[in-house]
Amino acid sequence: MRNNKLIFKKGFTLIELIVALGVFMVVMTMTLSAFLNIMDIQKKTEAFRKVNDNLNFAMEAMMREIREGKSYCPSGCTDDKTFSFVNKDGDTVKYEWDETGKYIKRKKSTDEPLRMTSDGIKITRLSFFVSGEETYPSGDRQQPLVTISIGGESGEKEKLKSKLNLQATVSQRKLDSQ
Questions:
Q1: How far apart are CA 146 and CA 77, in angstroms?
Q2: Which residues form the domain of 28?
Q3: 71: buried, middle or exposed (CB in 10 Å: 19+, 13-18, 0-12)?
Q4: Which of 14, 72, 124, 128 gives a 20 to 30 Å CA spacing to 55?
């Protein structure tokens, strides 16, 4: 009889199993929740990096070409979403927000339009503001300035979207009286 009691005491009771299972489930739920949050943070970080890289590339490319250009808006800028000028090679270049509103395109007078941003980026704002425009032949002796403002977003879900706005001012290298 004594041996039976010892064997009976070696196992777990039903209450002990339920408590252990409950503690295990709480720990697993917290771990899974933390893991899912880390994945969301990683996706949001990737979306921000993507929009940052694309907008910086587009801004730098436009600034480099505009800086060496002249005759900003020679036919007059019809709206602030389109900007044209003559580049250093004498070609007319036009930057504009695409009709679909999703990307920036660059069109040189002799070439097909080129897309400047990738598919995963949606451009939400593009505007140009020109000051100190040339008044050739007399010249106003003010350096022409172009302020470029770009906004974009990336990401699938609203919770994971990353938005970025950039603005830069570019001055023409040559004085407009030259």
A1: 12
A2: 2-171
A3: middle
A4: 72
Q: Which two tokens stand for residue 78?
A: 């019809």
Burial class (CB in 10 A: 0-12, 13-18, 19+), 47: buried
Task: Report whether pLDDT(167) > 80.
Answer: yes
75-100 pLDDT, tens per residue?
Answer: 556 667 788 888 888 888 888 888 77
- For the chain, the domain total comes to 1
Question: Taking a C-beta distance cutoff of 8 angstroms, is the pair 87, 110 a contact?
Answer: no
Does residue 176 lie within any of the structural domains? no
Task: Answer yes or no: is 177 within a domain.
Answer: no
Tokens at 162, concatenated: 């990353």
Eight-state DSSP code of residue 144: P
Domain assignment of residue 62, yes or no: yes
Q: Please say if the pLDDT value at position 105 is more than 70.
A: yes
Q: Is the pTM of this model over 0.85?
A: no
Give the distance from CA 60 to its chain's centroid.
13
86 contacts 108 by C-beta, under 8 angstroms:
no
Residues listed for the chain:
178
Name the range with the highest mean pLDDT among 21-30, 111-120, 164-173: 21-30
Give the pLDDT of residue 60. Answer: 93
